[in-house]
Design goal:
- The chain is an all-alpha fold.
- It has one domain (13-233).
- It is built from seven helices and no strands.
- Helix 1 runs antiparallel to helix 2 (49-95) and helix 1 (11-45) packs parallel to helix 7.
- It is elongated.
Length: 236
Amino acid sequence: MTDSTHDEPHGESLGTRLNWLRAAVLGANDGIVSTAGIVVGVAGATDSRGALLTAGLAGLLAGSMSMAAGEYVSVSTQRDSEKAALDLERRELREQPKAELDELADMLAERGLSQEVAREAAEQLTNRDALRAHARVELGIDPDSLTNPWHAAGASFLAFTVGALLPLLAIVLPPASSRLVVTVLSVLVALALTGWGSARLGSAAVRPAVLRNVGGGAVAMGVTYAAGALLGAAGV
């Protein structure tokens, strides 16, 4: 009988993939809402396709760069913290190996193993790769899969851009008489889909998530449109 464990998804890697997918959905959602707010606000003041395109592109570029930069800084900080924790663990293993072995055995026992089995498992894990064992059990870090800030920044940039393209295209492609209706309807449908996706990925109730997402987007567009209309009426 062949061992198929290597073909099965590991919980840790599956959780990482789900986190990345959830971040992508939320990034696209941010792109939809923020860009829709900008173009609908401008549409309240003017029906110039050039002005709408300029405002939408500026919002898309500014938002995507901001998301990418923020994610890069955040993940870089996380990566630095992970590397510092691994360096500290490496030094402790070098300076006090017996205490670290006892600590690993205690942590395994806290997870439900008997003292004897925990001790034996700790010794085997230490003999195989002490740093990796402590990193995973004690720190919850996989030394071979540290977070990559460039990957995170690129994913955030792409997700935001994809989301932002929807309201941008919806406001500039249709004729002036229908562009606002097309944009609002397209954005609300897209927000319903991203709300559904984020709820499913997070194993949460779908209806409240969809209603929150759609309601928040509708309010944002309503407020920015009203502000644009007031400014346009005032000749600003």
